[in-house]
Amino acid sequence: MKKTVLMAAALTTLAAHAQDSTQQTKQTTNPLTISGYVEGYYSYDFNRPDNNNRPGFLYNFNRHNEFNLNVGFVKAAYATERTRANLAIGVGSYMNANYAAEPGVLKNIFEANAGYKLSAKNDIWLDIGIIPSHIGFESAIGKDNWTLTRSMVAENTPYFESGAKLSYASADGKLQLAALALNGWQRITRVEGNSLLSWGTQLTYKPSDKVTLNYSTFIGTDKPDSARLWRYHNNLYGVFQLSEKIGLITSLDIGLEQQTPKDKELNTWYTPVAILRITPSSNWAFAFRGEYFSDANGVIIGTGTPNGFKTTGASVNVDYSPLTNVLLRLELRHLNSKDEIFEKEGANSRNNTAITFSTAIGF
Questions:
Q1: What digits encode the pLDDT tens for the residues 70-91?
Q2: CA angle at residue 273 from 269 to 278, to 5 degrees?
Q3: In the chain, fewer beta carbons within 10 Å around the N or the C end?
Q4: Is the separation of the CB atoms in 206 and 237 below 8 Å?
């Protein structure tokens, strides 16, 4: 009897200690994390532009023949079971180019949003603030992309958006849905004189861990009410891991916009992209990109030339990652246009070739 009492007392004490330890672990788990990212670069444009700026439709790595910072940011992220928030402050030539239209301190807000999980059982979230774009397979964070520079379509669709996002993810992680109300086409502050919101949708399906399919849309206007032109954008892409060492991305964007405020006729543009990546080891990767951008009416990229913007691009990329958080990259890229839209030593040219080197560190 005595042994039984002692054993029961010991088990009770052990259980109480385990419960106290669990509670202490829960209490000491910090929901706040601090991270950062820095991406420096050097780019040489063989056209040697007089103002040292790369072509105006490129918003990353856009300075010629100088060492520069593309983007650097510090991010604070807060996450619990039902709440989340992100705040990232950024600097660099990417910020200067993409946030030029924003006033004051908003020029340095890389990301700022707060979210609440609406359902205790299902993965349904409402996030409001400045969020990453729902369009395209490339982001502003270089290490997350297969190529050093961004595709022409990524450079000319939003990198960030300001608005509200309602999202759902299935329990098995295969299906994700989102609906967005936005301030405009890559806008934090809405265009003065524009009284309407823009809208977006996103559907992502992952039938397996080797295939990702995505379809995103945008509908809205980015002009004052007096000159309102409705814009409709469609983005479809797939990411395919063909084997352990070979991956493929294919993408097609098609956009339409009214020609005049009262006109039913639409201007159209389209841009296909394909990227093949080979990773022979965990330290090395090679990427080959082919792309084309057709915008004959200059809706997205105005040239003032007879054929508008009709440009083909090709690039070769070499990556070396000596550490898990360090990435060294080298890329050779060539662009060829139907018209002479590129500056070359004070004259015009149909061709543009550049070589770019970058170093990226995440922490």
A1: 999 999 999 999 999 999 999 9
A2: 175
A3: N
A4: no
Which residues, 6 or more positions from 8, have their beta carbon under 8 angstroms from its beta carbon? none
Q: In which band, very low, low, confident or very high, does the pLDDT at 346 lie, cut at 50, 70 and 90? A: confident
Q: How many CB atoms lie within 10 A of CB 307?
A: 12
DSSP 172-213: TSSEEEEEEEESSTT-SSPPTT----EEEEEEEEEEETTEEE
Is 10 in a helix, a strand, or coil? helix
Note the pTM of the prediction, 2 decimals.
0.89
Is 17 inside a domain boundary? no
Domain that holds residue 87: 31-362
Q: Is the pLDDT of residue 182 over 60?
A: yes
Please report, as a single letter, which amino acid is at residue 342.
F
Is 51 inside any structural domain?
yes
Contact between 40 and 70 under an 8 Å Cβ cutoff? The reply is yes
Is 11 among the domain residues? Answer: no
Q: What are 277's two structure tokens?
A: 């990546």
Q: Using the structure block, give the residue that is written with the tokens 């700026």.
A: 53
Q: What is the CATH number of the domain that holds 199?
A: 2.40.160.10
**Would you say residue 59 lies in a domain?**
yes
Residue-wise pLDDT for 14-34, tens only, equals 344 444 444 444 445 899 999
Gyration radius of the chain's alpha carbons: 24
Q: In this structure, are residues 132 and 216 in contact, taking their beta carbons and an 8 Å threshold?
A: no
270 class by beta-carbon count within 10 Å (0-12 exposed, 13-18 middle, 19+ buried): middle
Give how many domains the chain has, as a whole number.
Answer: 1
* Amino acid at site 40: G
